[in-house]
Amino acid sequence: MACLVSPPPAHIRPARASRHFEEPKLSTQSATTARGHTAGGVESSFAWFRLGAAVALSTIGGVGMWSIVVALPAVQAEFGADRAGASLPYTCTMIGFAVGSVLMGRLADRRGIMVPVAIGAVALGFGYVATAFAPSLWIFAVLYGATVGMLGSAAVFSPLVADTSHWFDRRRGTAVALCASGNYFAGTIWPPIVQHFIETEGWRNTHIGIGVICFVTMLPLSLALRRPSPMHDDSAGVGSGTGLGLSPNALQALLILAGIACCVAMSMPQVHIVAWCVDLGYGAARGAEMLSLMLGFGVVSRLVFGLVTDRIGALATLLLGSTLQAIALMLYVPFDGLGQLYIISAVFGLFQGGIVPSYAIIVRQSFPPSEAGTRVGLVLSSTIAGMALGGWLSGEIHDLTGSYQAALANGIAWNLLNMAIAFFLLRRSWARPALA
């Protein structure tokens, strides 16, 4: 009888052992996460090192979004333009940034992130030097849009955000928010520096200096991004977009509209705070300080909202950030004292920082990882398009009315549209728990 309960012969035991070792393969994400720290993959120390390089690149290359805001009064004076005309270079830059975000994101999907970043370093170096020799406002605007915007700064925002999303899963909200903070670090650091050198050296020499700095720092930093991104699967989103009961194209279209709406609202203080301070008699330097303060608190906001996203989800974070931004915009309407504007600018930065990174997380939960660069680029480019539209529209409304009060009302109306879309998507996610 003992032979009936003895271990089976050795030649039939390996089958069971084989099943044991194959079980972890049922969850690609779990397997990838488990080996991430030893293989230099997802959630590894290398992922955090790479994120640091991405933030540095975004901080340096993000100058393209803010230098023109600070230079706006000097450019307006030199070329004899009105406020709407002087806003044209910013609008061209943002349109170029929007187009470039999609093109560079698609290039990153095909060739890896290092290629578009290296192109961006060269484009920023060339573009800033070229704009310094522009003989007219139109040539200045076109050069800014084509080089600084489309090929330069666009390469170090949405493509880097999409790339970062591949390297993290459990802390994706925090990592993406930190990467997206790079352009706010740029907005905190660059405006006072640019303003100082415009006052002492002139805006043309300042642009030459910026171009040289971008080229000699960003090209070496791009080497940190040579390793291909790990394309792991996501159980939260397999690319159908059906977690919200919407087709992929319908979801993408709604996110694009939301991105435009939130950033038309966001652009009013960010683009015009320097010019507004000049109008009020406080001077361009005070406006540059307020912009720096606004974006410095925006960095804090993005980091905090990244932690919040990891806890409550991207859609809820989007609605929360949009609501807070609307409140901050409303504070600008009754208050325009110098001290009041400093405080409100800080509050505005603290309230709105969680909006843009939320879009990237929503996209990553709803579309395949292999489409991340293109899809994230499309949505984030819509936020840039909103900044471009809002920057021009606020200037046009100012010229028609003689003040920024109507421009603020316009921004608040667009903000309410963003809140409506965010609430609509959040309600659908409650009805369809599959998104979570």
Unreliably modeled segments: 1-6, 10-38, 233-242
Which topology does CATH recognise? Growth Hormone, Chain: A
Oligomer: single chain
What is the name of the CATH architecture? Answer: Up-down Bundle
Strand proportion, as a percent range, falls in under 5%
Percent of residues in helices:
over 70%
Structural class: mainly alpha
Q: How many individual β-strands? A: 0
Looking at the structure, what is the overall shape? globular
Largest beta-sheet characterization: none
Question: What is the rounded Rg?
Answer: 24 Å
The helix count comes to: 20
Distance between the termini: 55 Å
Overall domain count: 1
Average pLDDT metric: 84
Order of helices and strands: HHHHHHHHHHHHHHHHHHHH
Instruction: Quickly name the level 1 CATH class.
Output: Mainly Alpha
- In CATH terms, the superfamily is MFS general substrate transporter like domains
Summed up, what is this model?
This protein has 436 residues and is mainly α. Helices cover 78% and strands 0% of the residues.
